[in-house]
Amino acid sequence: MGRMKTIARRTFLIGSAAIAGGVVFGTYAYKKPIPNPLKASAITPYVLIDAQGITLIAPRAEMGQGVQTTLAALLAEEMDLDWDQVQVMHGPASRAYFNAAVLEEGVPFAPTDESWLAETARGAMHIPARFLGLQITGGSSSTPDAFDKMRAAGAVARVALVQAAARREGLDAAMLKTASGAVVLPDGRKIPYAELAQDAANSDLPEVPPLKPQSEWRLLGTSLPRKDMLGKVTGTAQFTADIRHPGMLFATARSNPGLGAGLASYDATAALALPGVEKVVEVPGGLAVVANSTWAAFKAAELISYDWEPAPYAATSEEMLAQTAASFTPESQDSRNRDDGDVEAALTSGDWSAEYTVPYLAHATMEPMTAGAWLQNGRLQVWAGNQLPTQVLKEAAAITGLEEAAIDVETPLMGGGFGRRAEMDFIKQAIHVAKAMEGRPVLLTWTREEDMTHDAYRPMAMARIKGAVADGKITALDVQLAAPSVMGSQMGRLGMALPGPDATIVQGAWEQPYTFPNYRTTGYRVPAGVPVGSWRSVGASQNAFFHESAVDELAHLAGVDPLELRLSQIDHAPSRKVLEAVAAASNWGSVPAGRARGLAFCLSFGVPTAQVIEVEQGQDGLRMTQAWAAVDVGTALDPSIIEAQVQGGMIFGLSAAIHGEITFEGGQAQQQNFPDYDALRLPYCPPISVAILQNGDKIRGVGEPGTPPAAPALANAIFAATGQRLRSLPLGKVIAFA
Amino acid sequence: MAYTLTVNGESKTLEMPGDTPLLWALRDGLHLTGTKYGCGVAACGACTVHLDGVAVRSCQTALEDAVGTQITTIEGIGTPAALAPIQAAWLEHQVAQCGYCQSGQIMQAASLLAENPTPTDADIDAAMEGNLCRCGTYPRIRAAIHSAAAKMKG
Ligand code: FES
Ligand code: FES
């Protein structure tokens, strides 16, 4: 951070606040007045030009999805930089560089619009980690916009530098070219950007020039070495857990395992007697122990006797499941976003029907929740891998009573996010501890057990689906989905309410491109209970399993190949093409002897994704032998990153499909650590080939769409192999995998 | 009490209880943060280091038991300027996503290759099963191990 602070004071910085004046008006129509439109475009990164070269100050945190590499490539493309000429630096959350409050309104929605999409976009303005994950979005409408703006920032910077060179040399700007980070004069001389930066910054910035056509891209569309890779293979990459300062204290927290309930009383005598323990601090949810090492804090936390208040929700998974099953009522109806034809008339009581369920899931990021804070001399420094830095600012101000201007939030690399780091719980605890230990930097690390038992879980959910087939087609499909509201739970924790329905309850089911003549999707809202949150691909994570299992069942009922059925009842061209691509890659029609395959499809976050999983029944169990995926991202910016994200998303989905289950007893999550909440491990992971298509209308992000089809593809493969139809997850409860 | 460890060829003294896991001695005592905490119960491999060249889980090794051994951490097998062959293979295959598990993956793989310079897929399965990656980098891990093996063979 040292370099950042010095730079901000004394060297030249083309901030997007300055650069992007034209960007805002050139590419974006804001619907509502923005106090200062120039500040509204900080979705563009900052370009820093100094003696050390050109640095993208990325306001987006890196969770592993490669977003900073792609942001740097967008900028470098338009600035005519070589790949090794651009570096990436994590931006400080906000204070020095943009006005967070203004930014929050810098989304294309009326301030009164508190829809899921609007709120998502607002959150995404800051750290688009989950929704604006990779290249650069998920379901948010701001994807193509961010894509344009990032390039526009680079293009404007390039023109400003060219104009500075033209003025200096007394030449017509039209005679100048740019290459490899320099302006090239007609006589071949080169002026490096660094020499022109001061001049460029002092003059009026030009309008956004036309962006390079795709045919002229040098960097975009190619697989670039990731900017974060060297640090990550040498152990030098700095995660929140790795922040160290002289005099640092180490802390851990214990919160009520009855999530949301308080601490009635406690006895910390034994803990305080442990060598190295400095203090026990009351924090939201429970207690934090502060010590001279994380290990001492962990041990001391074990020695405290806690008297927890009871959890404010049903005690057991069985009761929760009963609540879910009881929610398919008119009073609990949350949405009916699709109602094609006449499902009631088309279905009779004798038609096929099935019930599916999925359990709660933990995020289980590899780095447990960790945050650091340091309060001294009226200033607060926070370090936290998180997805909502401006919310961190708000919470920090509320806890400490400081002005937001006196607070710095740094977002180091995240050891996985998957939606978990949009939560504030652990960060608030660290700030409380810093307040109690004023003057000393504190790093608070949750144990794995604390992390797994104090999540904002992917909800338990249930589907009741009815369908009918005739002449080899699905003639009617009635999809009823019951889940608690993720957005309601999440926004509630941020002090906001969710008016209206929650689209995530039906996400991944209601918007599928099937043309069934009678086709209805109804969402039912299960009363709020256990805190639930966004988990990679959100509602699509369960709904694709429900929907695509049902489509597979009906295809078999109709006596039609599941691929043929989908191709005959999907007319959306990009979706058909991913199905065709995955069929071609897997040679769908000819399955090796002894093996069987399952297919699933889901359109999520705008990305049609089809997956095929091949299995083989062996002596020791069922083995996944191969897998194929095809995705359509509209425009593929970095094929290597896209491949990694699709593979990773699929593996994440398979981990949940085979192993993932959080159950509750006495209001407490029962699974504590990886031995009882395992994930797919290397020997069980099949080779996964990924086909990347570009037929979609817009550029799309691909951090999430790889996840939803994984579970149904596997369940459908199991049916093909064994004739056993599994309608509830995890599959590992029934099937032995080898 | 004070213990002296040999870490990455250097002698380091630190003051911590002898039963402190080596993981926390490295991270909090010596500020060598490349070695990660993931589970604390030998179930994830994020904390893998070498003791006398053999991969061990540092969350399961007491500080006092590491005295007198040669401890190697991710920081000791190569540096950004001088990568170990295994790290170069990881770079070539662009393995890491979030990266948090990768120190442990690399240390585990390095130990496998030291023992078995030409591992089969089955050897890789056996050696790497204990190293969890929640981002799902397994296909590239496998490819990187094979390519490191091929390069080291020359
Ligand atoms: S932290 Fe040691 S194996 Fe997980
Ligand atoms: S790269 Fe994220 S856990 Fe392995």
Commentary on this structure:
The complex is a heterodimer of chains A (738) and B (154). Chain A folds into three domains: 2-234, Aldehyde Oxidoreductase, domain 4 (2-Layer Sandwich), CATH 3.30.365; 240-311 and 369-445, Aldehyde Oxidoreductase, domain 4, CATH 3.30.365; 317-361 and 456-733, Aldehyde Oxidoreductase, domain 4 (2-Layer Sandwich), CATH 3.30.365.10. Chain A has 22 helices and 27 strands. In chain A, a hairpin with a 2-residue loop joins strand 5 and strand 6. In chain A, helix 3 (21-27) packs across helix 7 (143-169), helix 4 runs parallel beside helix 7 (143-169) and helix 7 crosses helix 8 (193-202). The longest helix of chain A has 27 residues, at 143-169. Chain A is globular, with a radius of gyration of 27 Å. Chain A starts with a helix and ends in a 16-residue tail after the last helix. Chain B has two domains: 2-76, Ubiquitin-like (UB roll), CATH 3.10.20.30; 85-153, DNA polymerase, domain 1, CATH 1.10.150. Chain B has a five-stranded mixed sheet, sandwiched between helices. The termini of chain B are far apart. The longest helix of chain B is centred in the last third of the chain and has 16 residues, at 138-153. With 154 residues, chain B is an alpha+beta fold. The chains are: A alpha+beta (738), B alpha+beta (154). At the A-B interface, helix 9, helix 11 and helix 21 of A face helix 1, helix 4, helix 5, helix 6 and helix 7 of B. Bound molecules: FE2/S2 (inorganic) cluster (2 copies). One FE2/S2 (inorganic) cluster sits between chains B (96-102, 133-135, 137) and A (64, 366, 416). One FE2/S2 (inorganic) cluster (FES) sits between chains B (96-102, 133-135, 137) and A (64, 366, 416).
